[in-house]
């Protein structure tokens, strides 16, 4: 609820980014005006990012195959917001949220431009809302409620030509780092929710989410595993563990042959506290 629709999937150098930047600037000024001139605390991030919003954000991430980085950032944001959102909540959500979209490296031939063509983040949220898996009554910075935002931006609901054109933004075919340097578009949208990039809940890639929280003697407080990336052949595994005290020593050990095929590499002191940025 804290960014504009399409911001998370629009190509970095596409001309559509110009409109997003301008609209974001206007919105920031308007939100500041409403708070300072009208004493409207409802526009503050702490009001928008409530507990249900954290649940929605994590639900979306799980539906996209799950990212362990998201866990780090979302828990840090919850801590700063003094929100009691924990790994137990993530585990609870992952047990009921299916995987609706897989992007590289989970699916090597699917990239963010393909997700955008299928309707982007708002389309995934739309599928989750249809299944009752997110709270659509919460506010966003750009709409009174998430439900109102989905009515305008979910390509399976909207009849807006401009929204449909927006989601047809395509790569330019030429590598570039120049902002707004191309405006190519696909000829059509990906609306296939059975075998397309974004699936319906009924046709999900898997019924269980892309993340799980594991508890045991190695991580008594819990550890995150990206289940969407775990091959079935190693669900049950035994083998030697090769332990390193840093990322650099692990890299050196791998390159010098200390790690053999079938070994498990354990790197200590590389968590969010010991190795910021992982």
Content of β-strand: 5-15%
Low-pLDDT stretches are none
Q: From N to C, what is the helix and strand string? A: HHHHHHHHHEEEHE
Content-based structural category? mainly alpha
The number of E-state strands comes to: 4
Neighbour order of strands in the largest sheet: 1-2
Rg: 21 Å
Overall 3D geometry? globular
Number of alpha- plus pi-helical segments: 10
Distance between the amino and carboxyl termini = 26 Å
How is the secondary structure organized here?
Elements: H1 16-38, H2 45-48, H3 51-63, H4 68-80, H5 87-94, H6 112-117, H7 120-130, H8 146-153, H9 161-166, E1 211-216, E2 219-226, E3 241-244, H10 247-255, E4 264-267
Parallel strand pairs: 3-4
Antiparallel strand pairs: 1-2
Helix pairs in contact: 3-4, 3-5, 7-8
Structure description:
The chain is mostly helical. The chain folds into 2 domains: 16-203, no CATH class; 238-278, no CATH class. It contains 10 helices and 4 strands. α3 (51-63) packs antiparallel against α4 (68-80). The radius of gyration is 21 Å and the shape is globular. The model has no long low-confidence stretch (mean pLDDT 93).
Please provide a brief summary of the model.
It contains 10 helices and 4 strands.
Give keywords.
8% strand, globular, 278 residues, two-stranded antiparallel ribbon, 2 domains, mainly alpha, two-stranded parallel ribbon
């Amino acid at each position: 609820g804290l960014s504009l629709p399409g911001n998370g999937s629009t190509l970095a150098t596409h001309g559509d980014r110009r409109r997003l930047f301008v609209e974001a600037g206007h919105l920031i000024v308007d939100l500041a005006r409403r708070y300072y001139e009208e004493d409207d605390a409802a526009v503050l991030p702490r009001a928008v990012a409530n507990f249900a919003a954290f649940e929605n954000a994590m639900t979306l991430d799980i539906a996209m195959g799950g990212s362990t980085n998201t866990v780090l950032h979302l828990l840090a944001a919850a801590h700063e917001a003094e929100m009691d959102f924990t790994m137990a909540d993530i585990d609870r959500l992952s047990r009921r949220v299916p995987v609706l979209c897989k992007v590289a490296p989970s699916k090597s031939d699917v990239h963010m431009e393909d997700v955008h063509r299928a309707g982007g983040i708002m389309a995934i949220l739309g599928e989750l809302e249809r299944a009752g898996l997110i709270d659509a009554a919460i506010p966003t910075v750009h709409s009174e409620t998430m439900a109102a935002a989905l009515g305008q931006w979910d390509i399976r609901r909207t009849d807006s030509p401009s929204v449909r054109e927006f989601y047809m933004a395509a790569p330019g075919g030429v590598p570039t780092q120049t902002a707004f340097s191309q405006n190519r578009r696909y000829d059509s949208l990906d609306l296939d929710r059975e075998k397309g990039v974004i699936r319906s809940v009924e046709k999900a890639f898997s019924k269980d989410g892309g993340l799980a929280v594991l508890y045991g003697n190695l991580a008594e407080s819990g550890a995150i595993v990206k289940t969407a990336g775990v091959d079935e052949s190693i669900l049950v595994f035994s083998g030697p563990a090769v332990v390193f005290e840093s990322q650099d020593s692990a890299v050196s050990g791998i390159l010098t042959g200390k790690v053999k095929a079938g070994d498990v590499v354990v790197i200590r002191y590389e968590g969010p506290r010991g190795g910021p940025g992982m």
